[in-house]
Amino acid sequence: MKPIATAKSSFEELIAGGFVYVDKTGLLARLALADDAAYFISRPRRFGKSLMLSTLQCLFEGRRELFSGLKIEGMGWDWKRKFPVIMLNMQECRAETSDGLRANLFSYIGKIAAHFGLNVPREASVGMYLNSVLRALAAKHGKFVVLVDEYDVPLQGFLGKGEEIAKARTLMHDFYVQFKSRSADIRFLMITGVSKFTKVSLFSGLNTPSDLTMDYGEYAGLLGYTREEFVQYFGEHVHDLATRRGWAGDETLRRIFDWYDSYRFSPFSETRVLNPVSVGQLFKSGNFDSYWVNTAMTTLVYERILAAGRTPFGLDDIAATPLELDVCDAESLPYKALLYQTGYLTIKSASTDENMHTRLVLGIPNREVRTALEEGWIGDMMHLDVPNTESLVASGRRQLASGNVADLVNETLYTLFAQIPSQWKISCEADAKRHFLLFAEMLGAKPRPEVVTARGSADAIIETPKAVYVFEFKYNRSAAAAIRQIRDKGYADAYRAGKRPVVLVGINFSSRTRNVQEPKIENFSATLSRQGAIQDAPRNPSTTVARKSLRNLRKSSDN
Predict the structure, then answer these.
(1) How far apart are CA 451 and CA 428, in angstroms?
(2) I need a surface site. Which of 55, 133, 288, 383 has the fewest CB within 10 A?
(3) pLDDT > 90: what percent of the chain?
(4) In order of start, what are the domains of the chain with their CATH numbers?
(5) Which helix H or strand E contains 191, and what residues bound it?
(6) DSSP category for residue 223
(7) Rounded distance between C-alpha atoms, residue 484 and residue 425, angstroms
């Protein structure tokens, strides 16, 4: 078997070293054969952007020996014509301050000039200096190629920094706009990144390069591995893994696709791809794990999920439009665009309505991402012991499925609320409800918040195959008052004619204990009057079972 390289992004090193190379040269040749073409493509980290640019560099430098036996042979590429290639790795320009970014850009432009033997005096601004270097390069060598890797990295360090991000954005605009002013000298331009920071004015500045990010044709599979490519290039490795694990070949493929497949980047193409890093690491170790996510996870992702009132347990069936995913304002960072562009959400399905508007449904791509997000949320955001919390969540799911709502509230929710980090505020009813909804998502309950009825809005409704649960919350009042409001406002009336029993749940949150307090649970019936019996949920679990669970968690943490 050919070896697999997971840490190399050099086309030359892969070919010379005899590593597996998934041949994308046919697609790249079609892009490169167009005259004076300019392209942009956005993809998550570690999907092969740097390798693609390295391949294009070798192609335009005319290094024919590296392409022997690849698809580009016979496609009419003129190997005799070679071009200078400016390869910009914008990782090298990142800085903590706008002044530091300016200094790094000046230094980087100087390195470009030195590489091509250009004697260009430093100008007063970054833009003027780069323009002078590009003009001198064209005068000396004619047309040249520009390849920009991770164009958005210099801005990422300034997110949330107010005036600094505005200064950094201006610097990067002045830098990138020079490629428009020298467009007559550029034979080919390819820009890659993760996010589309719209206010950088990259696209208006560059006279609108062709955006391949949501391409409806063959370029949807330009980065990452399609299933067909995976089977073609990694068949021997699949067989080897199946032998090591004692599985049949079909079962091995099913497990691999379940863990690492189904990133779909275009609403207009059914093409789905696997992540190259995860696949390579799987074959090296023989173990299924969260390889790619562990290289890309950031606190920012969790912060945006939390700010949107969600958890990783509730990131399926999210409605979106292509426009929502195609932008990423560096200040506001809309969570749908951020999670889609960084690979934590992907397109699950797409449809077109009668007005020809495209509607999308987003969800977590695969088991790798889901496992890493959920475990990271429990451990990094809530600072809980992952195995103990997973056991608690599993218990809560069984309680919900069996209809044991008293234990669900008094044991599971009580224990979860008791472990909320102190920096997570619960200063009003809205805060308490938000955390309840987050925990309900963790339990797979799919709660519907603020369900509008004829006389108001129910705080939350959870439906299971066995029952419908109507929740109302109070803050420093009483659960009984919550039950009265459900009845007075008719929050459960819409379910009166249904076949499933309807259960009313009133919950009071205490600011003193930061926890649920003596919830009330009542079986709703059309024949019951407002004075129907109210069942007090057993108080013992909250004072014994839940606290015992807390002691066990703390003991486990101490050990």
Answers:
(1) 20
(2) 383
(3) 56
(4) 11-213 (3.40.50.300), 225-368 (no CATH), 400-558 (3.40.1350)
(5) strand 186-193
(6) S
(7) 27
Identify the DSSP state of 98.
H
Angle at 213 between CA 208 and CA 215, to 5 degrees: 95
CA atoms of 506 and 478, how far apart (whole Å): 8
What distances in angstroms separate CA 231 from CA 226, 240, 242, 253, 355, one per listed residue? 9, 13, 14, 9, 39
User: For residues 459 and 316, what is the distance between their CA atoms, to the nearest angstrom?
Assistant: 21
Give whole-number Cα distances, 84 to 138, 505, 539, in Å. 9, 71, 77
* Angstrom distance (rounded) from CA 439 to CA 426: 14
- pLDDT tens per residue, range 260-295: 999 999 988 999 999 999 999 999 999 999 888 776
Q: Check if the beta carbon of residue 214 is closer than 8 Å to that of residue 221.
A: no
Strand order in the sheet with 535-536: 448-453, 456-463, 468-475, 502-510, 515-524, 535-536
φ/ψ bin of 53: left (φ > 0), alpha (ψ from -120 to 50), beta (otherwise) = alpha
Lookup result for tokens 């042979």 = 73
Strands 448-453 and 456-463, bridge-based pairing: antiparallel
Measured over the CA atoms of residue 229, residue 231, residue 237 and residue 238, the dihedral's sign is positive
What does the pLDDT look like over 203-229, one tens digit per residue?
Answer: 554 556 788 988 877 899 999 999 999
Rounded to 5 degrees, φ, ψ at 119 are -100, 90
